[in-house]
């Protein structure tokens, strides 16, 4: 038999097994479907028990159904041949036959661990590891690793050159794919690490940190579903583009109950998509912002009354600025502003009563005084104007006017100007979201009615007032208690500012964490400050560190250049080892100013022709508008072409990358060299730089 015939015979044999598994999966799908239907029928019986039972049944069956549907494609992807002759099939989810015998082992089960951990040096009982490549339900190829030749039966066939290299050479599309069939040993160790404390996954670009972290989320859900599904798993990445890039990985592993949020979307109701300019971004991210926000949340609001005069019987009662400041201090001494909101009317009333001295008034007593006061619209209007509930977003909007006065010299003129300019649009940038979140917590929410003090004059809690609250949609008045998760997974963590760490820390106070990052790729300029904030966010949780060492993304030719840039960007950077050579070295074009756009256009065309998958044109932010205008036709014609800035390429990858004006990317921010390093490490196959200057090349050895 020729090797092609042998491979075809092996594929046919595997197809027969795979068909049996799909047959069984279809039966399970029907059962789950009928359980959903039956569950709904039970609900119609009408008693409470029926409804509870229905909810539980429908919930379980629906979850099973969505897992079955999601894991459908490429369901069976692996086979282990063990010493002694057992063949064990590994899949995206577990499947049993009608007699409850295992047909397919879930990749996360202990029985599947060997699939990832066995090596030729240490085969641990595995003779042959086989990866099945499928298209839908059809097996289209097999790739084998013979791990233990000595114990292999004579007739054992070994096909292909290894699954990993085959999978690395595929063309990239717009979304990340699961690598469940080819997870490598060091990656598997990080995926299966215990869930306690914080698991920190480091390593150079393209080493699989993101994909490993996502498989880890699926693994954790499998091992402790009750805890992680009810407590929630939050996955945070740098941008919404990145979140759409990774969004399919978990569903393809049968997991749909995970919350994916970009850094601009972590706070409910606030969706930010754009980054600030570097100076404003660095200022807003700094922990120097914290005292400013504290002062903002506790100081008098602009426009609020500064005194109150009340005539009662023979007395003139006066609350001047000093007295009001005293009441304010008392109210804020142990409660955030909005939580103190129900106590404000009583505090004002008390301060007024203390001034009462007239005989007629004293005769009537405090009760009589309060009766009259709290039904008097002047008092009601005053308290409403002096201590209204404050919404975090509304308060954030006052920052441009107030930051100068509240900063107390902590920011330079340049920083203040950059922030004020950024706020002029009124639209929050990604860097504003942690500030709004900080304000939410500093202000607190208005407690629900039943938690309010009994000594609050009821008139102020009138129906009319509550209606007004709803009308104003005061978001800070909604609960902040449900921000917490059972597991928080942070990708590209090297870029988190101190203020962003604080925002995530509040969501992971009782959580275990997975933190993924590579310092060399950091665009945050003050590493020490961010590190302190990270440590504070983890609040002493035990850290387990893993380092991934092999770059699976870039060709070795591209990574060699990137590694030289890394030496300039961050001496001592954690460099990975690239495993794939393509024979295509990066190219550098040096052109005159007037020829730049033509050259970029021509290069984009060449790339679109030469690669099957995605192409990115990456430039400094200031260059994007003219590039987008010039490439508008091509962008309309090709979904796979993108024009973006360096920061927005974080975490992504493309088959071909055209880097426009590297010197401008480097000059754009303090972290310019590191951003340039990130950009270079996005290309899987082809890389070209086009520039009117080439100063950077002379710095790179
Ligand atoms: N075991 C593997 N088998 C097949 N492909 C893999 C494997 N590990 C990683 N890859 C692929 O390598 C590429 C890089 O992975 P990933 O984006 O997770 O790396 P990263 O370390 O997060 O990179 P960066 O830090 O540069 O953003 C992806 O296309 C991923 O699918």
What bound compounds does this protein have? adenosine-5'-triphosphate
Mean of the pLDDT scores? Answer: 88
Query: What class would the helix/strand composition place it in?
Result: alpha/beta
Helix content: 40-55%
Number of helices: 29
Major sheet size, sense and barrel closure: 6 strands, mixed
Give the strand order of the largest sheet, numbering strands 1, 2, ... along the chain: 3-4-2-1-5-6
* Distance between the ends: 53 Å
What is the alpha-carbon Rg in Å?
31 Å
What is the total number of structural domains?
4
Q: What fraction strand?
A: 15-25%
Total strands: the figure is 21
Shape: globular
Low-confidence blocks of residues: 456-478
Domain UvrD-like helicase ATP-binding: 182-555
GO molecular function: 3'-5' DNA helicase activity; ATP binding; DNA binding; hydrolase activity
InterPro entries: DNA_helicase_UvrD/REP, P-loop_NTPase, UvrD-like_ATP-bd
Keywords: ATP-binding, Helicase, Hydrolase, Nucleotide-binding
């Amino acid at each position: 038999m020729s090797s092609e015939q042998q491979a075809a015979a092996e594929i046919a044999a595997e197809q027969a097994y795979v068909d049996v598994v799909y047959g069984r999966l279809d039966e399970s799908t029907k059962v789950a479907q009928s359980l959903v239907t039956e569950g709904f029928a039970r609900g119609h019986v009408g008693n409470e028990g029926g409804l509870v039972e229905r909810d539980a049944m429908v919930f379980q069956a629906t979850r099973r159904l969505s897992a079955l549907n999601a894991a459908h494609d490429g369901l069976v992807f692996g086979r282990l041949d063990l010493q002694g002759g057992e063949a064990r099939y590994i899949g995206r989810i577990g499947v049993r036959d009608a007699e409850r015998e295992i047909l397919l082992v879930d990749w996360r089960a202990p029985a599947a661990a060997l699939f990832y951990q066995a090596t030729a040096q240490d085969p641990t009982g595995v003779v042959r590891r086989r990866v099945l490549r499928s298209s839908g339900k059809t097996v289209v190829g097999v790739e084998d690793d013979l791990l233990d030749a000595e114990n292999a039966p004579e007739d054992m066939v070994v096909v292909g050159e290894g699954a990993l290299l085959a999978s690395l050479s595929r063309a990239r599309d717009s979304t990340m794919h699961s690598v469940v069939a080819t997870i490598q040993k060091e990656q598997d160790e990080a995926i299966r690490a215990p869930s306690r404390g914080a698991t920190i996954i480091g390593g150079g670009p393209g080493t699989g940190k993101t994909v490993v972290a996502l498989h880890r989320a699926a693994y954790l859900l499998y091992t402790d579903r009750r805890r992680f599904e009810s407590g929630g798993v939050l996955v945070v990445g740098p941008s919404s583009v990145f979140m759409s890039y990774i969004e399919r990985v978990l569903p393809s592993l049968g997991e749909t109950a995970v919350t994916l949020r970009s850094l601009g979307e972590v706070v409910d109701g606030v969706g930010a998509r754009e980054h600030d300019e570097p100076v404003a971004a660095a200022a807003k991210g700094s922990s120097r912002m914290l005292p400013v926000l504290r002062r903002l949340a506790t100081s008098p609001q602009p426009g609020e009354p500064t005194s109150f005069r009340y005539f009662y019987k023979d007395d003139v009662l006066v609350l001047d600025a000093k007295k009001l400041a005293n009441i304010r201090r008392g109210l804020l001494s142990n409660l955030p502003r909005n939580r103190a909101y129900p106590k404000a009317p009583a505090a004002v009333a008390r301060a007024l009563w203390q001034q009462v001295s007239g005989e007629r008034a004293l005769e009537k007593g405090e009760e009589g005084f309060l009766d009259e006061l709290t039904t008097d619209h002047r008092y009601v209007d005053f308290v409403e104007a002096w201590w209204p509930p404050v919404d975090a977003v509304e308060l954030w909007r006052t920052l441009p006017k107030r930051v100068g006065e509240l900063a107390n010299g902590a920011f330079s003129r340049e920083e203040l100007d950059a922030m004020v300019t950024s706020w002029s649009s009124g639209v929050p940038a990604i860097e504003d979201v942690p500030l709004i979140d900080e304000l939410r917590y500093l202000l607190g929410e208005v407690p629900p009615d039943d938690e309010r003090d009994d000594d609050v004059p009821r008139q102020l809690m009138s129906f009319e007032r509550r209606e007004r609250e709803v009308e104003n949609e005061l978001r800070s008045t909604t609960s902040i208690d449900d921000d917490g998760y059972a597991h928080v997974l942070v990708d590209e963590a090297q870029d988190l500012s101190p203020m962003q760490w604080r925002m995530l820390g509040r969501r992971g106070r009782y959580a275990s964490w997975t933190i993924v990052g590579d310092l060399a790729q950091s665009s945050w300029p003050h590493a020490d400050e961010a590190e302190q904030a990270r440590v504070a966010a983890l609040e002493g949780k035990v850290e387990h560190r893993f380092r991934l060492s092999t770059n699976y993304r870039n060709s070795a030719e591209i990574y060699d250049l990137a590694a030289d840039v890394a030496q300039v960007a961050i001496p001592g950077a954690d460099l990975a080892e690239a495993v794939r050579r393509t024979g295509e070295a990066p190219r550098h074009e040096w052109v005159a100013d007037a020829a730049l756009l033509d050259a970029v256009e021509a290069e984009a065309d060449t790339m679109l022709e030469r690669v099957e998958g995605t192409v990115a044109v990456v430039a400094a932010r200031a260059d994007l508008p003219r590039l987008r205008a010039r490439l508008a036709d091509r962008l309309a014609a090709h979904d796979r072409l993108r024009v973006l800035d360096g920061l927005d390429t974080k975490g992504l990858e493309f088959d071909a990358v055209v880097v426009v004006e590297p010197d401008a990317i480097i000059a754009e921010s303090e972290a310019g060299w590191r951003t340039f390093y990130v950009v270079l490490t996005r290309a899987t196959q082809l890389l070209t730089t086009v520039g009117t200057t080439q100063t950077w090349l002379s710095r790179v050895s």
